[in-house]
Amino acid sequence: MVVFLLACTPSPTPAVLPTPPAEGPVAPGWYALDPLPVPLQEVSVLEVGDAVWVLGGFDDTVSPVDTVWILDRDGWRAGPALPKPLHHLNAAVVDGRIHVLGALSGRGFTPIDRSWRFEDDGTWSTLPPVPEPLGAAAVGVVGSEVLLAGGVSTGTIAVGYAYDTAAGTWRALPDLPAPRDHGVGAGGDAFRVLGGRDGGIGNVRGDVFALVDGAWEAQAPLPTARAGTAGAQLPDGRVLVAGGEGNPDDPDGVFADVEIYDPAVDAWEVLESLPTPRHGTQAAWFDGGIVIPGGATVRAFHAVDTVEWLVLE
């Protein structure tokens, strides 16, 4: 049985956070961007060309939505609606095309196996379904494949699947060493799963695994174990993780920690904390930095419209 907490009104970006200069170089650090048109959490956040797309999620009435919002240098605009209201989407971009491969649906967090691709004509086409209903998986792109690991199906699972976007076929992956959902996924040179949880919000994980030559290998663990974390892959292959939930030392149960993983040296670096601690969102590379839109400032449900942007050294 799912218990819903009270939804909230938007939380403003802290007044001390600067906005980016209208022109010229931007110094490293955190900046406030225009807020989302509406508060959202449990969204998918994707870099698509020079823009960021925010797909689905819950609004501040804890209702699933089918909306898509697009951020570019001119600000926010509405995009093409999803085929149905969805949250915890397994989504990725391959060759400039958005793929949604399973998700959670409704207030009951029902996993679905339905899959779609956003086409050049502005419509969503149907793809072969995921081998089992699945949402809240870790997602990464390696070559022409979108890889999923863990997530919520019949409970939290360890299984994984790869979808070949060129052939339109699915294959099974080796099971993760341990079940998890709400983890961060990354691709590039290898598929990685970072953090997550099993058995509830408080049972967070800090381990990191990479799929190498058909087997999972342990890598340097997260300095801060957490789940529901915003993650983004940088153009140089590093992976940034920010925020998350499952923090026993915070009354709201969320994290502000920001850390970045370098696969070239299998090591982590701790960065300046997230100005607005939150969970339930993702992150994407945008205009030379990392943008983190929306999320929730309290464990479970507390959707906000906050958008913050980190420019790295």
Look at the structure and give the mean pLDDT. Answer: 94
Biggest sheet architecture: 4 strands, antiparallel
Instruction: Provide the structure class.
Output: mainly beta
* The CATH topology: Neuraminidase
The unreliable regions are: 1-13
Number of domains: 1
Proportion of residues in helical segments: under 10%
Shape: globular
Subunit arrangement of the protein: single chain
Short description:
The protein is mainly beta and about 325 residues long.
Q: Topology, pairings included?
A:
Layout (H helix, E strand, L loop, with lengths): L28 E4 L11 E5 L2 E5 L12 E5 L2 E4 L12 E4 L2 E9 L4 E9 L5 E4 L10 E5 L2 E5 L2 E2 L1 E2 L3 E5 L4 E5 L10 E3 L4 E7 L6 E9 L2 E5 L10 E4 L5 E4 L15 E5 L4 E5 L12 E3 L2 E5 L13 E5 L2
Antiparallel strand pairs: 1-26, 2-3, 3-4, 4-5, 6-7, 7-8, 8-9, 10-11, 11-14, 12-13, 14-15, 16-17, 17-18, 18-19, 20-21, 21-22, 22-23, 24-25, 25-26
How would you sum up this structure, described in words?
The chain has 313 residues and is an all-beta fold. It has a single domain (29-311), classed as Neuraminidase (6 Propeller), CATH 2.120.10. It is built from no helices and 26 strands. Strand 18 and strand 19 form a beta hairpin. Residues 1-13 have low confidence and may be disordered.
